[in-house]
Structures are given as structure tokens and as C-alpha cells.
Amino acid sequence: KVSENPIEISEKTLQLSFSRESWVEIRDSKKKVIFSKTNTKGTEQVIKGMPPLYLVIGNASGVSLTYNGKGVDLTPYTRKVDDVARFSLE
Asked: What is the Cα gyration radius of the chain?
């Protein structure tokens, strides 16, 4: 039997879909870069990491993000000036 301890922190899954070219940098709970890449239009990435996860996404308006199966709206984190989103996910 697998014990389900709610205090136990486990890896979370991020799924990113790109409708335009976009660069992404993701850091884990230790602030270590676990993903850093320019992604081409029409591609997807799935990244696993220990939360909190710190994200910086360029051309954020062209990125669709799902975190542990739930959609994340990037709009509140995106600066209109340069279309860069900076935020963290627990």
C-alpha cells in the first residue's frame, strides 16, 4: 500500500504548448535551472520539478500552460511592454 502523506512534497508537472516562438526558463525550489530553451511554434514541452517553480516566459501571449492538469492564465503575470511573464507556482 502506498502511503499518501499530504505533507510530502512531490514533483509537479508543467505542460507548455507554443503557438509562437517563445523562450522559457524554469527554476526549481533550489533555484536551480531545470529547463531553459527557445521553443518553436507548434511544439510542446513537459517538465517535472520540485515546487515552488519559478518561471520566466518570453512571448507569453503565445504560450499555453497547464500545471498538474489545471490551466494557468498567464495574463496577470505578463507585462504588456515586452510580453514577458514572471511568476512562481507552488
From this structure: 14
